[in-house]
Amino acid sequence: MLKDKIDLIVFDVDGVLVDASRSFPAVVAESLAWAWTKVLGRIDDGGGFSYGHFSATKTHRSFNDDYDIAWAAINCAAASPSKMLSESLPPPAEWRALIEDAGDDVAGWVRRKFGETVDRDTVREACGELYFGSEEFARMGLAMKHTERRVGLWTKETPLVSFNWKDIPFPAGIYTGRTMAELELGLKVAGWEDFPRKMVVSSDDLIFKPSPLGLSILCERAGAGSPLFLGDAESDREASRAFGRGAFAAIGDFLPYESRSYATPAAALAAAGVL
């Protein structure tokens, strides 16, 4: 049984601890509409970035950062000769084929492929505003600069875990592409506000999947060497593969051909004999 071969459980956040299918994909879609109209001065006739685009992108190992997905989509659209948003992006299958050659350097690829009509920092700021909303920004002492969303899209998230991290008979860690501020909201949604922050590796640490370094750090902190990593995207699977020890379990629908694939974290841990 897998339980006898692991000594640490590591969780991704989006698609694992919380259902973010109505938050970050909407952040990408709304940021594209914002850039199209407010920055480029073109016509929003609907269409643009869909959930199909988002799920296709998540099968690429280097597109773990959802704000960079938004930046890539915005500059792809900006390079289109069409003035209509509905005609600015290729359909999901063509979009996936287009990003295939992005390699590990997403930023460099976007600039080479499309140019940088809308700069990366501005897009990331706008995405953050859409995710948090002005109410949450005010709580954090921040001011909105680009958008006017009052209630952040994080409020659309729901928990995917039906257990507490303390219920697991192994040390637990989190390896996420979220910032710590975004993670705090995710842990609130999941009901894991008491999760030990020393067992978190986030983008604030300047460690990004598919790097295996996050898994290595969490193993070191836990005194472990064989983690079971629960993730939902290709970047998670690649991080586990590059680490070379332990096991990976896919949660959700993005990786349908993964041998260990489960609807929820509880199902994955039950199959491993952990819960």
- Give me the side-by-side strand order of the main sheet: 5-4-1-6-7-8
Segments where pLDDT lies below 50 for 5+ residues? none
What does the radius of gyration come to?
19 Å
Given the structure, what is the number of helices? 10
Average pLDDT figure: 96
What class, by secondary structure content? Answer: alpha/beta
How many E strands? 8
Oligomeric assembly? single chain
User: What is the terminal-to-terminal distance?
Assistant: 13 Å
Secondary-structure element series: EEHHHHHHEEHEHEHEEH
How much of the polypeptide forms β-strand, as a percent range? 5-15%
Portion of residues within helices: 40-55%
Shape from CA axes?
A: globular
Instruction: Report the biggest beta sheet as strand number plus sense, adding barrel if it closes.
Output: 6 strands, parallel
